[in-house]
Design brief:
Blueprint lengths: L3 E3 L5 E3 L8 E5 L3 E7 L2 E9 L3 H14 L5 E8 L4 E5 L9 H11 L4 E8 L6 H20 L1 E14 L1 H10 L6 E7 L3 E8 H14 L5 E9 L1
Antiparallel strand pairs: 1-2, 3-9, 4-5, 5-8, 6-7, 6-8, 9-11, 9-12, 10-11
Amino acid sequence: MAKKKKNATGSDSVAATSVTQDAYVTLARTAEARFEVKKTIFIGSATHTETEEEARAFIDKIRREHADATHNCFAYVARGGAAARCSDDGEPQGTAGMPILNVIKMSGATDLCVVVTRYFGGIMLGAGGLVRAYSHAARLAIDAAGIAVREYKDELTIVASYADYEKITRELPTFGATVDGSDFTDVVTLRVCVKTDATEPFINRIKEISAGRAQVMITGRRRE
């Protein structure tokens, strides 16, 4: 889990985790955390979501579970940071969704969604109190979910003779490569997946054992 540090206001914030370009930071699991302030209950729910569709599905799930709540405010970052959205869900503008989104950004994580549910207890918190409460609930939820470093993998297509195919398959475990599919015609077309940091040495090894006969193409990249 990422270490905590004090921000400029003296409150706890989640410190960003440093990773290489071959990996990314997200949440380790789905989690929930709650606290109470002035008889108002705040429940933070957080999960890993790679797409906006997955984020919206999680938001809808929490809304159904807490249909009787006063507010279900949220923020998410998806598609590796390419998409981000937040909602105050009826709270005063800027007091809920944006504070949650700021906590997400400060965590250094991506591809996650945080929903903070509020059950009003009858005592007004004021704009500043709402900002602090929603921020705190988001931090608690992310801490409960835990920070995980996940790796990118490259998708490769290999075209080889049958003789070279047998040599190549023996090398797959060495590089942690997995087979996505294969086609057998006059040659063998093999679709494999390998960790990005192992791609270059894997390709070099294929060229070596096939004496340059095998054709290797990087056809895509995915998250694991």
